Amino acid sequence: MDHGLRPPGPGRGDERRGGAPRSDQGDTLVRADRLRRANVRTETVAVLACALAWSAGLAGAAPPADVAADAQLRARRDTYHPVTELLRAKAVRLSDEQVEKLKGFPLEAVWASVQQLGYTNAHMSGLRSTRPNEPLVGRALTIRYLPRRPDLVEAMQALAKEGDWPVAYNVRAGEEAKPGDVLVVDLGGGVPDGIFFGDISALAAQLQGARGAVLYGSTRDLTELRAMAGFPVLAVGFDPRPASQIGVDWNVPVRVGGATVLPGDAVVADDEAVVFFPGSIADEVIARATRVVEQENHERALARTKQHRFRDVYPMSPELRKKFEEEKKENKP
Questions:
Q1: What is the mean pLDDT of residues 210-214?
Q2: Predicted pLDDT of residue 84
Q3: N- to C-terminal Cα separation, the chain
Q4: DSSP codes, 170-196
Q5: Which residue has the higher pLDDT, 65 or 1?
Q6: In terms of domains, do 152 and 243 share one?
Q7: pLDDT tens by residue, 82-92
Q8: What pTM was estimated for this model as a whole?
Q9: Is 194 a domain residue?
Q10: Do residues 204 and 174 make contact, with C-beta atoms less than 8 angstroms apart?
Q11: Are 229 and 206 in contact (CB under 8 A)?
Q12: Are residues 4 and 132 in the same domain?
């Protein structure tokens, strides 16, 4: 690197004075310039060497130490989960009024509305209900189970002692469920190895105000559960054996089939399927579902008149749709 400098030519000073160039003076200047260039190269190499050494040190350095968890977090009623904490600030609680409105819609209308709003991993079908023709709507209380192993059982017993809650989470649900809750339990989707509770635990949860349960797994006491009005239980299946897994998380994100369920989500279920979505979009879901129901009712009415080809009724032709929209405006209060 020459910094834009050029050495003067041999005897250039003498030339400016009008004298003849001196060869010894020119040789001295050339040697000085060569020395200066050598020093610059040496400094550059030294800087690069330092930079490489610093980079190598960073690459081999240990990552920052993990932050030690506060021991008090273990005794929180809701299991600490960073995703839940981040979402909590934007969470909107599903109101009791919204719950009552959602009860009046067919599940297909709710499903279509939720899909339109971008929540595509939000439902599961193929479940069995203990109370056919009885809808289930409420707020998700999420619970996650895992297969037992001695060290895990020991840890969960210690946590239960610190937090003062029952080790058995079906019993805990009978103590801690709140009015409007729907127990949404991830048991891995199994039947004989996915038992959650029986009718006595279900009764305790119902007496706390819970509206029912959605089990990605199974339960026992089917005959008794069928007799519990106001408390539908949807499950993958039913089995008479006792529970074999252990509850590990309370109010955290869980899986129900292909659906993601977050604590507090709206739960809307019929006889064999369930839809989950956040309370923040409940008003829009209700508005869209209302439009779906209005249109389908109008299509049914048109079909009964037998005045139009069915292909023009379902889906409605542009002409019939225009007339439908005009009638809606006229009848709007």
A1: 98
A2: 92
A3: 83
A4: HHHHHHH--TTEEEEEE-TT-STT-B-
A5: 65
A6: yes
A7: 999 999 888 99
A8: 0.79
A9: yes
A10: yes
A11: no
A12: no
Residue 68 domain flag: no
Q: How many residues in the chain?
A: 333
Q: What is the pLDDT of residue 29?
A: 55
CA distance 122 to 282: 14
Nearest Cα to 129, choosing from 260, 257, 226, 261?
A: 226
State residue 276 phi and psi, 5-degree precision.
Answer: -125, 140
Residue 289 lies in a domain: yes
Q: Does 111 share its domain with 260? A: yes
Residue 130's domain comprises 93-279
Backbone conformation region of residue 67, classed left if phi is above 0, alpha if psi is from -120 to 50, else beta = beta
What are the phi and psi torsion angles at 307 (to 5°)?
Answer: -95, -5
- Give start and end residues of each alpha helix (H) in 61-180: 82-88, 96-102, 107-116, 150-163, 169-176
Instruction: Round the average pLDDT of the chain to a whole number and report it.
Output: 87
The answer to whether position 62 is within a domain reads no
pLDDT at 15: 38
Q: Which two tokens stand for residue 125?
A: 């079908």
Structure tokens at 298: 């109008």
Q: What average pLDDT does range 61-72 have in this prediction?
A: 68
Residues 264, 295, single domain; the answer is: no
166: Cβ–Cβ under 8 A, 6 or more apart, which residues? Answer: 160, 172, 175
